[in-house]
């Protein structure tokens, strides 16, 4: 019985955590105006 109570409690805490993070929404950020260097330098 204790294991069942612990499992239900853990599930409730995990669900509350997911809902809290979802309610906070996506972080507001901006992309960098500088382009990323994605080219490989030429080999000698």
TrEMBL record:
InterPro entries: SPW_0924-like. Residues 25-44 are annotated as: Disordered. This is SPW_0924 family protein.
């Amino acid at each position: 019985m204790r294991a069942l109570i612990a499992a239900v409690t853990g599930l409730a805490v995990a669900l509350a955590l997911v809902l809290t993070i979802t309610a906070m929404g996506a972080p507001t950020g901006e992309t960098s105006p500088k382009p990323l260097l994605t080219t490989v330098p030429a080999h000698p």
